[in-house]
């Protein structure tokens, strides 16, 4: 490994036809090349998926190591093989896949998880193809049962559809590609991939986290949809994140240069900690000609008994999300959450903005009603004062 070349390895386990390669492609947002390899002359053949990306002047290669047929091995073979694989590859994490239509043998999963735990390897247990059967909850429950046995001292916490066991393991469900059931006329969009990527990231130590983010550097959906959570993770104001994402050649290099990463005591950015430069340069003219407001719709002001109030928006195009988030921050939002809309249109996003100032929230709401009910044009002018 040279100074300008970095390598990372990830283990992916599970039976055939559970969607492992599809999950890998969804994580990286591109189709990875597949080859066969052997770590040494005595080991069984293993599938190898490689992804190479160039970030700035650094070439980063990630290899996903898939272990076909491991489900039929005995305990000694599984433990010996996993130990050898971990020692040879030093993986960022291990991802185990099982789908509702293909049950995992829980003993085999437990052996794999146990070996990873002894080597301090993060385990992500994933129910893939979640819409392909009605037994997805049973798959998740089985995963949790294993982790409760391996980590009896850890109380699991559920957040954004992911069950976290501190920073050592997690359980979740995903659908890597669009699911279509022609017989029943059911269509489900991809779901859970971005949350899985983020969940793995915040469980990893700093160096492994950076390597993981370089692995998904070409996944534009992740960087835009999860922008608010990434700002919280890196403790970066929205305006700085937006500027880096749009203009910095080495986006990850600049982003990873900020002071501290996530820890269990991290709190959400408060309005007083968001530094906005009033003299900052305007966005390029090619962007300012686009109408930000015509692509968004306010849904409601949710009722809340707490001191923090919220506005809900639907955004018709993901392409405008970064600018929309930036505008909300400048209007005084203390927290912004982006998530996929429940509607079948994959381009639509649901944006929730929190405000501590009721008057500001109501003023934004009233102004929004005006611009959506009438044709309003607005430009910035300099009003020169004369004697």
From TrEMBL:
Xref: InterPro entries: GTP-bd (IPR006073), P-loop_NTPase (IPR027417)
Coiled coil feature spans: none
TM region positions: none
Record-linked Pfam families: MMR_HSR1 (PF01926)
A single GO molecular function term of this UniProt record: GTP binding
Gene3D superfamilies with a match to the protein in the record: P-loop containing nucleotide triphosphate hydrolases
G domain ranges (all copies): 10-80
Superkingdom in the source lineage: Eukaryota
Endpoints of the signal sequence: none
Identification of the protein by name: G domain-containing protein
Organism listed in the record: Rotaria sordida
């Amino acid at each position: 490994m040279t100074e300008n070349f970095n390598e990372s390895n990830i283990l992916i386990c599970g039976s055939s036809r559970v969607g492992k390669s599809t999950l890998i492609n969804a994580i990286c947002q591109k189709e990875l090349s597949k080859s066969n390899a052997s770590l040494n002359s005595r080991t069984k053949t293993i599938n190898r998926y490689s992804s190479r990306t160039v970030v700035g002047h650094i070439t980063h290669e990630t290899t996903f190591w898939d272990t076909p047929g491991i489900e039929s091995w005995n305990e000694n073979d599984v433990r010996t093989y996993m130990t050898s694989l971990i020692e040879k590859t030093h993986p960022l994490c291990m991802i185990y896949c099982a789908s509702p239509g293909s049950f995992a043998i829980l003993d085999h999963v437990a052996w794999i998880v146990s070996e990873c735990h002894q080597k301090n390897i993060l385990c992500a247990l994933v129910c893939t193809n979640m819409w392909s059967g009605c037994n997805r909850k049973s798959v998740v429950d089985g995963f949790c049962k294993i982790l409760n046995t391996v980590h009896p001292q850890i109380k699991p916490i559920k957040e954004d559809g992911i069950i976290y066991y501190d920073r050592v393991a997690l359980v979740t469900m995903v659908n890597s590609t669009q699911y279509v059931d022609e017989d029943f006329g059911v269509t489900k969009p991809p779901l859970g991939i971005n949350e899985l990527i983020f969940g793995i990231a915040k469980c990893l130590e700093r160096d492994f986290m950076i390597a993981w983010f370089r692995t998904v550097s070409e996944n534009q959906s992740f960087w835009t949809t999860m922008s608010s959570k990434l700002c919280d993770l890196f403790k970066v104001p929205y305006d700085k994140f937006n500027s880096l994402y749009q203009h910095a050649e080495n986006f990850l290099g600049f982003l990873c240069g900020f002071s501290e990463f996530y820890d269990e005591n991290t709190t959400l950015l408060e309005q007083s900690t968001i530094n906005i430069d009033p003299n900052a340069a305007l966005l390029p003219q090619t962007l300012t000609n686009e109408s930000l407001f015509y692509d968004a719709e306010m849904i409601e002001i949710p009722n809340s008994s707490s001191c923090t109030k919220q506005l809900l928006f639907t955004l018709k195009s993901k392409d405008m999300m970064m600018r929309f988030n930036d505008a909300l921050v400048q209007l005084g939002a203390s927290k912004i959450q982006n998530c996929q809309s429940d509607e079948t249109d994959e381009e639509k996003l649901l944006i929730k903005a929190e405000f501590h100032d009721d008057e500001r929230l109501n003023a934004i709401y009233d102004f929004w009603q005006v611009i959506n009910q009438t044709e309003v044009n607005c430009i910035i002018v300099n009003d020169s004062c004369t004697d």
